[in-house]
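Please annotate the following for my students:
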Amino acid sequence: MKVYTRKGDAGETSLIGGKRVKKYHVRIEAYGTVDELNSFIGLIRDSAEASDQDDLLLEIQNRLFTIGSELASDPASKMEIPKLTAQDIEKLEKAIDHMDEHLEPLRNFILPGGDRTASHCHVARCVCRRAERRVVALNEETETDPKIKEYLNRLSDYLFVLARYYTKQHGGEETLWKTRA
C-alpha cells in the first residue's frame, strides 16, 4: 500500500465514511491536534527512564487513537468506531492519585521544566489543552462524545502531575513562579 494517494493535493481530505472536507476544517484541526499530542506522548515514553507509568502511557496512546478515530468520522457514517469508556478516565484519575501520594503538596505555581522528560510532559500538557479546545469548538458544530472532552481534560491533569513525578524521580528541581513585587 502506498502512503501517498494524491487525493489531498487540492486541500481536502476524507473523513471516515468518505465525506470530503477542507484540511482546515475544525474536525481536522481537532483530530490533528490529538495526533500531535499522541506523538508527544511517544516522545515522553521514549525519553523517560523506566517508570511505573510506561504501560499507562502506551495505553493513553491507544486511547488517543480511539479519540482520533471518532473525531475523524463523518457523523452520518454507519461505520462502527471504538469508544472511550468511563474506566479510561478513571485510570487517569487513579494514576494521578498514585503519583500525588509521592509528591509534596503544591503551594505555588511552578514553571514548566524540572528535567528533560518533565519538560516534554509540560509541552504535551499544553498540546492536550489545545486538543481539548479544538474538540469544544467542534462540539459547537456537531455533537461529540462528552467522554472525549472529559478524557482530554483529565489527561492534561495527568501530564501536569506526571511532569512533577518525573522531576522528583529523576532528581530534578521544580522552579517556583516568582511574581514581581
In short: The radius of gyration is 18 Å. The CA atoms of residues 7 and 91 lie 39 Å apart. Strands lie at 12-14, 20-22, 110-111, 175-176.
